[in-house]
Amino acid sequence: MTSRKPDEQLARNSRLRLVRPRALATARRAVTTRRTRPAPRPPEGTPPRAELARQARTVLADAVRIARWAALDAEPGTAAAPRPQAVPDQERAAAALDLTPGQIRAGWDRARLAGLVELHGDTARPGWRLHAWDRDDSAVLRGWVALFDAWSLVHPAPEDVAPGAVAEVVEAVPQVLSLLQLSAGPVVVPALLDLLGQRVDELREERCEVPVEGAPAPVTASAAGPDRFAALLDWALEGLAAVGALTLGEGSEGRQATLTPLGNWAVWVKLEQICVAAQSPAGNIEQSAEDMLRGCAGLTPGPARDEYRAWLAARTLAGAVAELIAVARGEDALLRGLAFEALRVVGAPAEAEVRAAAEEVSLRPYALLWLAEYEGADPDDAPEVLTREEATWLWVDTAAAVADHGESTLLVRHLESAVQGTVPALLDEVRAIGHPRTVQVLVALAAAHPDPALAKAVRRAAFQVHTGGA
After folding, report:
1. Which of 286, 419, 427, 442 has its CB surrounded by the most CB atoms within 10 Å?
2. Which residues face 6 on adjacent strands?
3. Above 60 in pLDDT, residue 28?
């Protein structure tokens, strides 16, 4: 009896070789097992997220109305309305929304700072948060936190104060907010003023550890009197009140400030980030992004995310995001996947850079999955945003990471995550997409697979890619 040719056997049995495909979210994490760790709980008495989101919607109600009006008022046939540094037609918007021109201007600024509108070149378009505003509490809270972080832009600083003094007070305000949170109630303004002066002195000492010979000694807050910062403290408190972080009122001992539930929750979030940065469990804070990611490659998900947060908290977000994207462009596929895991921890501030990365072939599948999850898709459903070619590219890239850093048995199991139904279909599409690591991946898979017929077909495919054959 004449035996069947190996290719015929492969075609006949290939559906047994590729078991039911798993979601690509699983393939993306083929190198390490990703477990979910519970998020830290906010302090007792903090309202649930739904209530916090309701309060944030109230704070930004006018900004949302103006952003939606501007979107409807866009010129016919275009997706853009007002220019980025301007506002919608204030008179028309005021008449349509029953607001004053000043309220329109302030609301538009808040909409931009909260990400309700996005700047694209010389135009502003509705942001994804605006589209998700009524259904996504996380989007609402992220938008409000972005506004909270930009409080110093919401309320203009006094014109007769030097910019350096303004910058010092902005840097010292977190200490004031921490006192308000620890007090869990109203704090009189004189106490806040005293703390502000002390913190400014500390910051000056940190910057001037070695006095310059012959230079005049800096005037400390204690020497100049705490009233020197009274106007700037008033400005800071009014700015924070304007974004809904605190309330100002009169008590038996004079003017006092109290954190709102939103403000209390935001300060807790910031303190958690600082604590994580101080812990740095794996000690990678001082490392470059590439070395930090290599150090995290062997960590389980919880410690890895802690390390990402610590590394990010020690840097400016813009610089950190740029460094992570640069690592993702490199040749190491494992670091590419880990870079986007770190960018998931960054969240909203990375959105623009990730959208730009989606235009690059090697980063596009990772960027599209990031954006899908960022906009609320379940991680197991996110791979549906990828085309067949993008999914195949991601499969090869993940296989390259496994081949470089994993065990051969893991590479064999990686077949289970392919979207193609048969081995021949997978090989055809892998050869067609032009991934630079295709040959190495196929050679490694052929060497690792225990089925001789399948291994032979994979080796042949690798040879064809290497020689440019069909």
Report:
1. 442
2. none
3. no
DSSP code for 332: -
- 117/109 Cα distance (integer angstroms): 10
Match 């002066």 to its residue by tokens: 197
Give the C-alpha separation, 51 to 56, whole Å.
9
Contact call for residues 248 and 234 (beta carbons, < 8 A): no
Contacts of 354 (CB under 8 A, 6+ apart): 325, 343, 367, 370, 371, 374
Report DSSP state, residue 414: G
Residue with tokens 């890239």: 397
Amino acid at 231: A
CA distance 175 to 203: 11
pLDDT of residue 229: 83
Report the relative pairing of strands 246-251 and 254-259 from DSSP bridges: antiparallel
Report helix angle 438-448 to 423-433, nearest 10.
150
Query: What b/e string do you get for 53-65 counting C-beta neighbours within 10 Å, with b at 16 or more?
Result: bebbbebbebbbb
Using alpha carbons, select from 178, 195, 144 the residue that is nearest to residue 274. Answer: 178
Residue 190, both tokens: 């004189």
* Residue 251, beta-bridge partner list: 254
Dist. CA 32–CA 398, nearest whole Å = 11
For the ranges 110-119, 271-280, 361-370, which has the lowest average pLDDT? 271-280
Query: For residue 369, which phi and psi values (nearest 5 degrees)?
Result: -65, -40
The single-letter code of the amino acid at 79 is A
From 10-24, 200-214, 218-232, the region with the lowest mean pLDDT:
10-24
Output the CA angle 411-416-420, nearest 5 degrees. 115
Phi, psi of 124 (to 5 degrees): -120, 135
DSSP 8-state secondary structure symbol assigned to residue 82: S
Position 308, amino acid = Y
**Would the pLDDT of 425 be above 80?**
yes
Q: How far apart are CA 62 and CA 467, in angstroms?
A: 63
Query: Which of 70-74, 124-128, 142-146 is most confident?
Result: 142-146
The overall pTM is greater than 0.90? no
Cα–Cα dist 322/331, whole Å: 17
Partnered with residue 255 across adjacent β-strands are 250
Going by C-beta distance under 8 Å and a sequence separation of 6 or more, which residues neighbour residue 318?
349
- Type of residue at 215: A
Provide mean pLDDT across the span 334-360: 91
List the Cα angle 53/55/60 in 5-degree steps. Answer: 90
Structure tokens at 344: 């998931």
- Give yes or no for a contact between 357 and 367, defined as CB atoms under 8 angstroms apart: yes
- Which structure tokens are listed for 203? 């910051």
**Mean per-residue pLDDT, 37-41:** 54
Of the candidates 50, 234, 266, which has an alpha carbon nearest to the alpha carbon of residue 147? 266
**255-274 tens-digit pLDDT:** 899 999 999 998 888 776 65
Percentage of the chain beyond pLDDT 70 is 78
